[in-house]
Specification:
This is Lipoprotein. The chain has 164 residues and is α+β, with helices and mostly antiparallel strands. It has helices spanning 2-17, 87-93, 102-105, 147-163, and strands at residues 21-22, 29-30, 37-43, 53-59, 62-66, 82-84, 111-112, 122-129, 132-139.
Length: 164
């Protein structure tokens, strides 16, 4: 348990203190590929509009929004086209990575429950650390997921709603 807390603290420190690059073409801040990050999102298949699929990336002390709004393919890493959001929005979510339940890091399955099977949507969580990338697709229906996830997934979805 102590090792996991140290891991999460290190992830948060890297997220808050790392450097970032600027795109030579337009001067936009872009995340670098070599550092740690935390990605999260929500997706609803029986829905219309850009708010049905929302993915975010926290990296280098910044928050990014995926401009694609593309419904994910369960079982694969999400690949987004990210643009930087305001520091005000980053401040709303900067601590989410530190709240990842320890039990999730021990999960052998990348799919928990049946995300969006009953039109209840799903939540996506991804981390990249020195240990590599890990990601999970999680059902929003608490009856289909382990109890240790309920509070965390509730908070992730609350923060996503605040960012809309």
């Amino acid at each position: 348990m102590k090792t996991t807390r140290i891991f999460l603290f290190a992830l948060a420190a890297l997220t808050l203190g790392a450097c970032h690059d600027k795109d030579a073409k337009d001067g936009r801040d872009l995340p670098t590929l070599s550092d740690s990050y935390f990605s999260f999102g929500s997706f609803y298949g029986m829905c219309q509009g850009d708010d049905c699929v929302r993915f975010f990336l926290i990296r280098n002390g910044k928050l990014y929004l995926d401009k694609k709004h593309q419904y994910p393919t369960n079982g694969t890493l999400h690949e987004g086209d990210y643009e930087a959001l305001s520091d005000e929005k980053y401040q709303l979510v900067k601590d989410l990575a530190t709240k990842i339940p320890e039990e999730l890091l021990s999960e052998s399955s990348i799919t928990l429950g049946c995300p969006d099977c009953a039109d209840g949507g799903g939540t996506y969580i991804e981390i990249n650390t020195a240990d590599g990338k890990r990601f999970w697709y999680i059902d929003n229906n608490n009856r289909e997921t382990p109890e240790y996830l309920h509070e965390f997934i509730g908070e992730v979805n609350e923060k996503i709603n605040m960012l809309r």
